[in-house]
Amino acid sequence: MNIMLLLLVAAGVSLVAQNLLMVRISESASTILIALVINSSVGLLLLMALLFAKNGASALAEVTGNFRGWMLLPGLLGSFFVFSGILGYQKLGAATTISVLIASQLVAGLGVDIYKAGPAALRDNLPALFGAVLLVVGAFLVARRSF
């Protein structure tokens, strides 16, 4: 099995474990925001330590020197994704949350790929589009018990 495929499978399994743990944290706290702050703080500290270990003190100057306002968007979007995942796990369950998230990511990703490649890519991507339709139908079948 390809190492990249193994990495992606491990990341998918890790996301389920992360969400289950984040639900547990938020159940013992007054708000989901506590779990989000803990999650983001650990991630920030780990990444800053790795960056510092790799590039030394100059890394902080590079981070601040390259900063642009629009660079806040990935963090906001990531926090929104994690927040939605935790809420979904709590209110709808893991299977429904995962199926809806994955189907929506695939549809959006195919849209981006086709847009970037141009109109001719639509024909080349018909099998992928058919697969996306099947995934959306599957997500609906999984999620319909929750709505």
Overall number of strands: 0
Structural class: mainly alpha
Shape: globular
What is the alpha-carbon Rg in Å? 19 Å
The percent range for strand residues is under 5%
The number of helical runs is 7
| Share in helix | over 70%
Largest beta-sheet characterization: none
Account of the 3D structure:
This protein is mainly α and 147 residues long. Helices cover 84% and strands 0% of the residues. It has seven helices and no strands. Helix 1 packs across helix 4. The N and C termini lie far apart (38 Å).
Secondary-structure map:
Blueprint: H1 3-27, H2 32-55, H3 58-65, H4 72-91, H5 94-117, H6 120-124, H7 126-143
Helix pairs in contact: 1-2, 1-4, 2-4, 4-5, 5-7
In short:
The chain is mainly alpha-helical and 147 residues long. The chain has helices at residues 3-27, 32-55, 58-65, 72-91, 94-117, 120-124, 126-143.
Using brief descriptors, characterize the structure shown.
147 residues; mainly alpha; 7 helices
